[in-house]
Design goal:
This protein has 348 residues and is α+β, with helices and mostly antiparallel strands. The chain has two domains: 122 residues; 149 residues, Rieske [2Fe-2S] iron-sulphur domain (Rieske Iron-sulfur Protein), CATH 2.102.10.10. It is built from eight helices and ten strands. A four-stranded antiparallel β-sheet has the order 1-2-3-4. A hairpin with a 5-residue loop joins strand 7 and strand 8. The longest helix has 32 residues. It is elongated, with a radius of gyration of 34 Å.
């Protein structure tokens, strides 16, 4: 058997040699190695200028963010919104990154890097020990040169003071904006507006769909209209899932007034989950259940999209549909109720 092999694997082997120490001595703090900035005043001044420049760049980034916010406002187009958002993101990143990089470079090159050991005590330290600790803090501040580096201190304070304006000004300026919640009650669906495939915009005929077919649907629109920022915003509320069932499987396809909202087994429901607004698109053909992938709310497409499982507490709003003279599917009207999750002016 090897000398290093444990003959009893289930038991811990302990050292019994008389040469093993009972405790290890504290090696203490290693000797301090001075940096170039500690021994060369010219190097210290050079690093001070570098840190000041970094903080100045941060200030310029904050100012540029405010200029971008007021000068490059979204113009209602997708391109304009992207440009405004990109400029705000880049300038805010420069401002915040400058603060971080400047603080790190200041700490590494100019602030004191001496190591100090303070013994921890369960109870409060005696007054003389606290006095020594306060003196250590004062010595550290003196070593960092904060008091005599006025320009550097001013640049750091300016950067810290300007950065909050990059998000405070947009927040304050938005006060009193558009809070018309009635916009949530309606979408761009309207009477006789035809259904189109998402995203191509090709119109849908009832004859295109077989039993079990599923289609992602948007309102009919021109290609130019579909490229507009307003369309993209409104489309988010108007997306629809279209399913063709066997008419005999439908248990509910009528409005409270008794109007038929489906056509030959074809039903259309909002894709926006009534729980927190995730897109519901996982359809089980055999059970006619529609599943939300976020929190597993399940809706019965054969029974008015009622909730059969999960946290959602309202059915998916149904889009009433019919066909025109050419056989294309079209809306009878907008949704009868607001789409998506509840909000502050709606109890359910």
């Amino acid at each position: 058997m090897s000398a290093n092999q444990n003959p009893h694997p289930g038991q811990e082997v302990t050292a019994t040699s008389s040469t093993s120490p009972e405790r290890f001595e504290d090696p203490g703090v290693p000797a301090h190695k001075p940096r170039l900035t500690d021994t060369d005043p010219q190097a210290a001044r050079r690093n001070e200028r570098i840190v000041t420049i970094i903080f100045a760049i941060s200030c310029l980034g904050a100012i540029a963010s405010l200029v971008a916010y007021f000068a490059v406002r979204p113009d209602g187009t997708t391109e304009g919104t992207r440009l405004s958002t990109a400029l705000l993101g880049v300038t805010m990143a420069i401002s915040l990154l400058g603060i971080g990089v400047g603080a790190i470079h200041w700490a590494k090159s100019l602030m004191s890097d001496h190591e100090h050991v303070d013994e921890r005590h369960e109870l409060a330290s005696p007054p003389e020990v606290r006095a020594v600790a306060v003196q250590h803090l004062a010595d550290g501040a003196e070593d960092s040169g904060i008091a005599r580096r006025g320009v550097l201190k001013g640049a750091a304070v300016s950067a810290l003071a300007l950065f909050p304006l990059t998000f405070a000004v947009p927040l304050i300026s938005s006060v009193g904006g558009d809070w018309d919640v009635s916009k949530f009650r309606h979408t761009i669906w309207e009477r006789n507006r035809r259904l189109a495939y998402d995203p191509s915009g090709r119109l849908i005929k009832a004859s295109d769909l077989t039993v079990g077919s599923v289609a992602h649907v948007i309102p009919e629109a021109s290609q130019e209209e579909m490229r507009s920022h307003e369309w993209i915003t409104e489309k988010a509320k108007a997306v629809v899932l279209l399913v063709r069932l066997n008419p005999e499987d439908l248990r509910s396809d009528q409005s409270p007034e008794g109007e038929t909202w489906s056509y030959d087994g074809i039903v259309a429901y909002s894709k926006i989950c009534t729980h927190v607004g995730c897109p519901v698109a996982l359809y089980e053909q055999q059970t006619h259940h529609l599943l939300c992938p976020c929190h597993q709310s399940t809706f019965d497409m054969a029974d008015g999209a009622k909730v059969v499982f999960g946290p959602a507490n309202r059915p998916l709003p149904q889009l009433p549909i019919t066909v025109d003279d050419e056989g294309y599917l079209m809306a009878q009207d907008d949704f009868a109720e607001p789409v998506g999750p509840s909000y502050w002016e709606r109890l359910k």
